Amino acid sequence: MKRVLMRCADGEVFLAAPPDGEASRAPSMEEMENGVAMHPDADTMVGRPRLDNVQACIESVLRDNVPGDFVETGVWRGGTCVFMRAVLKAHGVTDRRVWLADSFAGFPKPDSRTYPMDAVYERYASFAKGLGESIAVPADDVRARFRGYGLLDDQVRFLEGFFADTLPQAPVDDIALLRLDGDYYQSTWEALEHLYPRLSSGGYCIVDDYWLTTCRKAVDDFREKHGITESVEIIDWTGVYWRKEQ
């Protein structure tokens, strides 16, 4: 499943054409496998280490009977959530849901007055264009990817809209796995503010873009404000996580 989502593994492109472009510009196999770059046809930007982490966290909460659903805030093409649903299916779990929270229309306009660190994202449109890929992926396209894997069912739920509008009243009582991929200070803070209190003891909080100054600052500020002292563990060059103990 990981190989299909990434379109590469074990030093080879998997079920896809080689990346287009000049050799100097095409992503290397090492970059794709480590999530530094991606195959243009991939369902996820997340490399193997972060997918391995998602699997390990899911299997940990299942083994320890930690109550709650799985939530990702910022899903892009939905590949990581597809993987979450696949792990649940592999374990025969039918009483947990995977929630996809996203605008499915790109990033909100940065509120640099309230969140000054996000002023940098006023230039984000040009950065996204440089990626050669639109950040905005319609919800129906994401559903189609789930459907293609035979994984679109009642255990997959969508929270469509900006976090400030959807997360406060999100119909999720208990969360066992919370994965943040919002990039902005504001998006990261809002996800933590509204969802972290619902994270069960023994559940995991995963941060995909801790390397980004804005995201890291929001996480650090939130942890300090709420006296969160659980150790932050490194996944790879960008991802971190911790397990909620209380």
Summarize, please:
The protein is an alpha/beta fold. The chain has helices at 2-6, 29-33, 48-63, 79-90, 124-130, 139-148, 163-166, 185-195, 213-225; strands at 8-9, 12-13, 69-73, 98-102, 156-160, 175-180, 199-207, 233-234, 240-243.
Please count the helical segments: 9
Supply the helix-strand structural class.
alpha/beta
Helix-strand pattern? HEEHHEHEHHEHEHEHEE
Q: How widely separated are the two ends?
A: 33 Å
What's the CATH first level of the largest domain? Alpha Beta
Total number of domains:
2
Number of E-type strands: 9
Show the helix and strand layout:
Elements: H1 2-6, E1 8-9, E2 12-13, H2 29-33, H3 48-63, E3 69-73, H4 79-90, E4 98-102, H5 124-130, H6 139-148, E5 156-160, H7 163-166, E6 175-180, H8 185-195, E7 199-207, H9 213-225, E8 233-234, E9 240-243
Parallel strand pairs: 3-4, 3-6, 4-5, 6-7
Antiparallel strand pairs: 1-2, 7-9, 8-9
Protein name: Macrocin O-methyltransferase
InterPro entries: SAM-dependent_MTases_sf, TylF_MeTrfase
Describe it for me?
It is a single chain. The protein is an alpha/beta fold and about 250 residues long. It has two domains: about 1-40, no CATH class; about 45-245, Rossmann fold (3-Layer(aba) Sandwich). The protein is built from nine helices and nine strands. A seven-stranded mixed sheet has the order 5-4-3-6-7-9-8, with helices on both faces. A two-stranded antiparallel ribbon has the order 1-2. Helix 3 (about 50-65) packs parallel to helix 4 (about 80-90). The longest helix is centred in the first third of the chain and has 16 residues, at about 50-65. The chain is globular and about 45 Å long. The two termini are about 35 Å apart. The model has no long low-confidence stretch (mean pLDDT about 95).
